[in-house]
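3.2 Worked example (two chains)
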Amino acid sequence: MEKLKKLLLRGTPSLLIPLGAGFVMASSSDIRAALGMGAAVIVILLLTSIIVSAIKNIVPEKAKVPTYILIVTGFTSLVSMLMSAYFPDVVDMLGAHLACLAVSAVNFREANEISCMEKEGTSIISALITGAFFLVIMVVCALFREVLGNGTFFGLKIEFLQDIKIQTLAGAFGGYLVLAIVLAVIRKIGEKLETKEEVTE
């Protein structure tokens, strides 16, 4: 139980999301794009964790980084091809950002953490938690940016918002602004939970 608790704390969004802030900002102006990017990250992290867990004891220390690069890049290419085949509209929205997942600090950080873990099950849980946090933050940011910034939801126009939408939220500045607010709220909630735990102990 203690190990799982540490795992949850290690994967908190306040630590994770700044590594992928560029992806959140670039892919959260539309809920469809946010869901697509979040799902891609989860699949890549999960597949990477399985392979890295399987080979971590046989890969020499000096070869670990290039090996992780090869694994992450390979799975990113696979996910990109599958999404292009089945979800071309989402791929068009994501553009080059989907391919850039191959060099994402989130994926490399997770692969490095996985290589240090003793059990394969723990590494898979870690990958799922990390991916889930990323997806939730993406969707929350997209809800604010698409609905309030574009006056749409899943690409469908919301008539009563057309005259009051805040177009700044749909741009790059709005992306970072929304992400900063969401992270501040998460950090505040985390601090309250930690304080509550200290009191109970």
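3.2.1 Second chain
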Amino acid sequence: MRTVSRILVASMLCIAVSPALATPDEEVRDVLSAWAQAYTAGDHTKISQLYDHYGRLHGVDTADMIGPQAISEHYYFENGHTTLRSVKLGDIKCYAYDDATATCAGGMEFIVTKRSGERLSQPSQVSVAFAYDHDVGKWLIQDHRVLRGIAVAVNPAPTLQADTVKSPPNVVPASAATIPVQ
């Protein structure tokens, strides 16, 4: 009886102190955070390990890269052009559709420090599609798109009330009557 009691107490302690399992939404958000950390660290090898074998990075200034090797080379050469490059994630929403597919989308800000010391901020939008690879037991990036130069708030302002938003006085709304039909 004592042995059974000890086993039950030990099992209850293990359950009480075991960490909560992360949801798929949190897991893909962690992958995106790992990408941002690796990008800021200039670790092109770690970045490439976050992509699937056929993962696609839609280049901002270059053609699309497919696969970890091409993506690693892209980030390796991108880092060579400046002395410091970092990214700050903004308001990014992640959603797992099931246990094998998920997406994240939102704003981020790239900060580039040139050799001259000049710092440039590049507000951007990001969208990332993930698939869970059961063979390796982790989420991998399937499709990654970044649109730079799009004004996004890294720390968005609170939602505005509809009655506080007013159209400029010189803007006349279009109506069906003003659009010629042919």
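3.3 Remarks
The CA atoms of residues 3 and 9 lie 10 Å apart.
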